[in-house]
């Protein structure tokens, strides 16, 4: 099988590997689609994603979909040929009681395509992968495998919305209209938000936000309405966060979705005190990926998040497009 390894900064290699056979309790999947995530780009551009530092080659990718190709011993389904996506997290041991319901914060967790541990965890940008049966998420009727490649990032967006609290009737802001920000627009609307304002410096990104259901698209948070009471910072840019904290209304909630740099940053924090703001973090997701597949099945316009599809052999061009093309959003690799 062909798989995509990263060997260093700007060093992607499509290599041949043996097809992995499913062991007991495992499922083999023929991967059809793989979405390039910001963490994949970070390893490619800097060799670091968040606090995870790459020290040896490994396979990238954690946003994938495809079809079951074989079942290991003791696995009863879904059957061979079933369309599925994958929950990238794998945990070992019990979850501490104080973290009940927050499996994404499990102290012993590995994630597909991550350099957080040593050895690193190979990802899913490969024509064939094996995962534990409990990581396999069957697709609902009406959802094809191409759109389903968005399930993992939509799970991230839905978890961020959960962290914000009840959005029923709220006017919310989404700052940063990359793929996750666009999916936050979808998730917020599904959660009952009455009005959604999107913010991005890029005109194509603002246009996509409107197509995905935002009511207005702004260039700056300085123009935000005083009626906004919940904001999602989805760019990871300190200047974006600073603008939100400076201009959002009193007693509002700010959810940090985008990854901030692992170094000190300059942000005006005074309003957290003087305006009694609630600043909340959000990290990956717990079980929201199953809800994400259902939302994708009933939301065909989610397909508009995908702007480019390239073959695995064109991985370098795909990564370059995702990193540098202002007209790009989610760039997807065709693996089958």
UniProtKB/TrEMBL annotation:
InterPro entries in alphabetical order: ADH-like_C, ADH-like_N, ADH_Zn_CS, GroES-like_sf, NAD(P)-bd_dom_sf
CDD domains recorded: idonate-5-DH
GO molecular function: L-idonate 5-dehydrogenase [NAD(P)+] activity
Cofactor dependence: Zn(2+)
Domain Alcohol dehydrogenase-like C-terminal residue range list: 179-297
Keyword Chloroplast on entry: no
EC primary class: oxidoreductase
Annotated Alcohol dehydrogenase-like N-terminal domain residues: 23-140
UniProt keyword list: Metal-binding, Oxidoreductase, Zinc
Transmembrane regions: none
Protein EC: 1.1.1.264
Family statement: Belongs to the zinc-containing alcohol dehydrogenase family.
Name of the featured protein: L-idonate 5-dehydrogenase
């Amino acid at each position: 099988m062909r798989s995509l390894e990263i060997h260093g900064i700007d060093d992607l290699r499509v290599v041949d590997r043996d097809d992995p056979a499913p062991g007991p309790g495992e499922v083999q999947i023929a991967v059809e689609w793989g979405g390039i995530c910001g963490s994949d780009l970070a390893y490619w551009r800097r060799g670091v994603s968040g606090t995870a530092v790459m020290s040896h080659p490994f396979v990238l990718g954690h946003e994938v979909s495809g079809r079951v190709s074989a079942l290991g011993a003791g696995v009863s389904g879904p059957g061979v040929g079933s369309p599925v996506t994958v929950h990238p997290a794998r945990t070992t041991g019990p979850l501490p009681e104080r973290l009940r319901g927050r499996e994404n914060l499990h102290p012993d967790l590995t994630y597909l395509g991550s350099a957080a541990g040593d050895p690193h965890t190979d990802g899913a940008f490969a024509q064939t992968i094996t995962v534990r049966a409990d990581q396999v998420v069957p697709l609902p009727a009406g959802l094809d495998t191409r759109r389903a490649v968005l399930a993992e990032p939509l799970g991230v967006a839905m978890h961020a919305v959960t962290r914000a609290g009840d959005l029923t009737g709220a006017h919310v802001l989404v700052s940063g209209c990359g793929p996750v920000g666009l999916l936050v627009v979808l998730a917020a609307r599904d959660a009952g938000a009455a009005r959604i304002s999107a913010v991005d410096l890029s005109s194509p990104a603002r246009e996509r936000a409107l197509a995905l259901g935002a009511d207005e698209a702004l260039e700056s948070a300085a123009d935000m309405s005083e009626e906004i009471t919940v904001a999602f910072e989805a760019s990871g840019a300190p200047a974006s966060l600073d603008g939100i904290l400076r201009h959002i209304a009193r007693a509002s909630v700010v959810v940090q979705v985008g990854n901030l740099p692992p170094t000190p940053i300059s942000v005006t924090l005074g309003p957290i005190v003087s305006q009694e703001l609630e600043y909340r973090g959000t990290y990956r997701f717990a079980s929201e990926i199953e809800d994400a597949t259902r939302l994708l099945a009933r939301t065909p316009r989610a397909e508009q998040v995908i702007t480019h599809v390239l073959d695995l052999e064109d991985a370098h061009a795909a990564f370059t497009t995702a990193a540098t093309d202002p007209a790009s959003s989610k760039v997807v690799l065709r693996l089958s």
